[in-house]
Amino acid sequence: MKNFYYTFILAGCMLIACDKENNNVDQPVLPPEPDPAPEVPSIETYPRIKIELNETEQQIVNTTNSFAFSLYKQLQNAPREKKENILLSPFSLNIALAMLANGTQGDALKEITDATGLKGFSINELNSYYQKMTEGLKKADGGVVFSSVNSMWSNKNIKLKEDYVTANKAVYNAECFEVDFANPSTVNDINKWCADNTNGKIDKVLESTSVNDLLYLINALYFSAKWTNEFQKESTREGEFTQKDGSVATANFMPQKGERPYFRNNLFASTKLEYGNGAFYMQLILPNENYTTEQVIDQLKEPGYWQECNKFSTYIVDLALPRFKVTGKENLITALEALGIKRIFTNKADFSLITDYDVVVTKVEQHTYLTVNEEGSEAAAITYDSLGPTDLEPATPPSADFIANRPFLFMICESSTNTILFMGEANSI
């Protein structure tokens, strides 16, 4: 039996498998020309459509969010320049792992579900959840552009199991292309697909492919939204940002003062900025003086801690947020192995639901992009009531300053479920 290797790239999410033997294959079936990336509509009154989850599905949200913080901690621990920014899309990664799980059995599947906290959930429950979430995220706000698109690129000489292909088509709407990985044009086709589905923000995921490649699974995630209350460009002023390595850089700070959610404990302060009709928000977390983002994540990854810290009060917040841009490329194998997902990277994994060939995952990557400015945010990933008397004067909310002039954490989330779509930290500007 031939041996193959998977490369699982999360830039959406890419999964590759490689054959140890060379094969002659036909010319690729090229993907159709996609529609142009949609423009972000101007802010209007769009109905907010909540994502209604049952108890099981909300448990999946909570466990996958906890997994996100644990995985993020591993990225913080990875060797990197001290002031390097970090950006991760947990949602894209989780879709990638779910698509892989559809073709995984035995101990390898157990490792995936144990590490992600999904031990008690069936594959059908996971598939149903991600199908509902993806559709719900698209409809939550008509003024926000959100897309999660999947594709499968397979070697024409390799027979994939029909049930596996059918499941990914039905649940994840995966486009399927049979290609010649020995043909240099295949790389261009894959990179073009990634660029087309991230509005051109991630346009080069692969340098090359090999005749031994079996399969790429790709998830492309794209998000673009305007703030509910945009910052005034004429108010933006230069200021100093103390970077992770202690050096001081000049940044463009966007000021805004008004009522917004605010929380503070002995470790950090946090506030939220809503997009559009409020279906999505960015949560900012600023470590208190003499604390670090690493210390914050150490606590956030503890079960239940993030939920406790999301008990916001209304404050008049004097906010100063720097304009910033973060791009990233993360090889996630080491981080996943540290959390207990190991067998998929060895020949001990059972991928017989995908193909009869012996395969192993050889790469898990995620490519990410985020910009934050006065108008709103654009992000992409390829993975690979209080009741009271009405006759009293309303109390004035307390005040707080939130000056993000040093390293801070950020998350883009959906409001009704608090699902984390993107998370990262700005260590340099």
From TrEMBL:
InterPro entries: Serpin_CS, Serpin_dom, Serpin_fam, Serpin_sf, Serpin_sf_1, Serpin_sf_2. Residues 69-429 form the Serpin domain. Coiled coil: none annotated. It comes from the Bacteria. It holds the Pfam family Serpin. GO terms for cellular component: extracellular space. GO terms for molecular function: serine-type endopeptidase inhibitor activity. CDD domains: serpin_miropin-like (cd19588). Belongs to the serpin family. This is Serpin B.
